[in-house]
Every structure is written in C-alpha cells, then in structure tokens.
Amino acid sequence: MKATFGGGCFWCTEVIFLNTEGIISVLPGYMGGTKDKPTYEEVYTDTTGHVEVVHLEYDETKVSYEDLLAIFFKTHDPTTLNRQGEDVGTRYRSVVFYHDAQQKEVAERFIRELEEAKVYEDPIATTVEAASTFWPAEDYHVNYFNRNPDNPFCAAVIAPKLAKYLKSKKENE
Fewer CB within 10 Å of terminal CB in the chain, N or C? Predict the structure, then answer.
C-alpha cells in the first residue's frame, strides 16, 4: 500500500516513518505542483505549487493507514498554514495526499474526529487532496538525517523530534 504526507520539511518526516514498524520504504519528494520533474531549488521558490512530501510503501498487516495518520498528526503541527516551525512557504503546508477513495474517507474522518475532540487549540489547516505524480527528491535528500546527524539542523530540530517520537512509541508498547 501507498501513503503520501506533506508535513513540513521532508527530512523531519522521513526519519519518523523510517522508525515505524510496517514501513517498507520511505522516499522524500514533491507532489501537488504544476511542473514536471521539479528540482529542490525550483520547489524552494514556492512557484511550482509542489509540497515537500514523504511517499511511503507500507505493509497493512503490520500498520494501518489510520495508524500512519495518527503518527503524521502527532509529529507535526497541523494547525499552521504553510509553516512548520521556522520553515515557511507553501512547500511546507500540511497535506494528506490520498491514493484511493477509502484513504480519502479515512483521512477526512480522522481530521473531523480530531476537530470534534478539540485535540488542538487552533483549527486544523491540513488539507486532503488527491495524489498526483510523485517526483522523487534528489539523492542527497534520501535518508538525510541518518547520513548527516552532525548537521546543525539535524541536531537542533530533527534529533529532538525523533527522540520524542521514539519515547512516545516505547511508552505505548
């Protein structure tokens, strides 16, 4: 099965799903824009309409789509429009790209239930959109955190986020 999420910087999102049981593969890339084969530099200008995403293949016998949504919503701020922390721009917007009608229904229901439960103080800004062509990011983005743990961004932003996720995951086992 496939799932595609945009939740800010794909380096941050990629490492979370790399540490999730049932994930077969995680690829950072771009979706939702108007240009074929966009480059990181083009997407960074916010003129192509693409979002930085992670494209997942998962084993639904080990992890459900709803479980993936729960991880996605717990590991980024779905209430900010076109922003995650210091990362600002439409390329960082929060979006669930669905691959079939069932994913659309599950994602919309999941968001509705979060809103009804008032899980977040502010309204959820995450959109649910039909998946379009996935364009893989350049090779240097793949497995970025694990290959660059001493990068200042990785150390200051991604490492604490990953530690929080792993701690939460362990507490829920």
Answer: C
